[in-house]
Design brief:
single chain; about 220 residues; L-fuculose-1-phosphate Aldolase; seven-stranded mixed β-sheet
Length: about 220
């Protein structure tokens, strides 16, 4: 086992949060053993992020990598996630974002490969927390092109589908970002089920504009 650095020890509370939520993501079936990545802003200079080539269902705090906001791997014994640049650019372009959760939940990922958009307006909770779900055009995973496309696409949104790839959610805290990712998958399931009901001639009523306006006037989306 690699020796733990002083920097890792100082960042342990943040690494523990990242490991905890990565394990949770796997347990809930929202990603695979090798898929998905999570990051948490430590301060204006540091990011804790899940590395590549680890068992995401059993990852521990001392297996969490540290990345500088300039892109330097501060834990050279670990291989950075191929999507580390995506996480870094999101946090640069969105100073209000402190956590990023990227995964491959089945239904949302299926919709990412279809022309059916996620409808977050069937339930008030989904609309209040997700609002809109943006579509981000395809780019090869792990590339600068994907990092640029995702970070640009999320400037005005907190959840998105990556075409033929998966889903992503961001937030001011890890809990908020995780909640959005989970609700994104739930909303995707409702979208598919609603399409099937409508195909059978059964009406499905999303929130009316009046109800959306009421939610907008009561809940602040942050």
């Amino acid at each position: 086992m690699c020796e733990i650095s002083n920097l890792q020890l100082k960042c342990k509370p943040y690494a523990q949060i990242v490991a905890q939520f990565m394990n949770r993501l796997y347990r809930m079936g929202l990603t695979s053993t090798s898929g998905g990545n999570i990051s948490l802003r430590i301060n204006e200079d540091l990011i804790a992020i899940t590395p590549s080539q680890t068992d995401k269902g059993n990852i521990e705090w001392d297996q969490i990598a540290l990345l500088s906001i300039q892109g330097e791997n501060l834990t050279p014994s670990m291989k950075l996630s191929i999507e580390s640049e995506m996480h870094r650019l999101i946090m640069i372009k969105r100073p209000d974002v402190n956590a990023v959760v990227h995964a491959h939940p089945c239904t949302a990922s299926l919709l990412s490969a279809s022309d059916l958009d996620v409808d977050a307006s069937f339930l008030a909770e989904h609309y209040a927390i997700l609002d809109k779900v943006v579509r981000i055009p395809y780019a090869l995973m792990g590339t600068k092109a994907l990092a640029e496309a995702v970070s640009e696409g999320l400037i005005g949104a907190n959840a998105g589908l990556l075409e033929n790839h998966g889903a992503i959610a961001v937030g001011p805290s890890m809990l908020k970002a995780f909640d959005r990712l989970e609700l994104l998958e739930n909303a995707a399931k409702l979208t598919v089920n609603a399409a099937m009901l409508r195909a059978c001639g059964i009406a499905v009523q999303p929130l009316t504009q009046q109800r959306k306006d009421e939610i907008d006037g009561t809940w602040k989306k942050s």
